[in-house]
């Protein structure tokens, strides 16, 4: 095993594995990589660390603090109390707990409830499910002007069963152990409890056939229920040059991604839907 090189390359010193079969091809001597070493070994490592550093630092840049963002002109969202129900994307797991919900409030002077717990599902599988938190953590006496629910990627990742659209509109008839049954329960409960407009939002396109099927099932439910969809899966192009600047991974935006990419699109669709509903 070759000695690791100069202490001025501290990150590589501690983190770059030199106990590899190709070490003699990658190092000209104990301090200097070969051309092949730079191209195939050191450069990818440095690139990876630069991306990691960017993803950490973008979340602490002052311009992405909610209190520092520019406000929109008064609009139909202004003064509304919006309830958000979701998991890690609604919470802002890759952005230090700041998400579109916080930016929409800051930009449009809304009040909001952010009922978001990472890793949770639509399917009612315990006290942290969407349904249980909606029932137990959002007061029925709350004045809710718009209810926005995340179409959870966790259900797709867990392989939760899709289910079928029921013939009923009674809460007790829905199979909440399935994705569609849980969606129907949320739609009906929101209508009965707050009688306010409801929208679901999807994530942007990532490598998941199961999530794509969930998006299609959600659209089919519009044949039975009145609700809006913020469809970033089909309507917000993910094939953009800024993608790696905006996303921490295929599912979670960073603050830049929320503020510059997701939030304007979501605001547009929310304003369109509330205007359509005469709110």
UniProtKB/TrEMBL annotation:
MF annotations from Gene Ontology: hydrolase activity
SGNH hydrolase-type esterase domain location: 85-258
Gene3D superfamilies: SGNH hydrolase (3.40.50.1110)
Pfam families xrefs: Lipase_GDSL_2
Name this protein carries in UniProt: SGNH/GDSL hydrolase family protein
Source organism per UniProt: Candidatus Pullilachnospira gallistercoris
Keyword Nucleotide-binding on entry: no
Alphabetized UniProt keyword annotations: Hydrolase
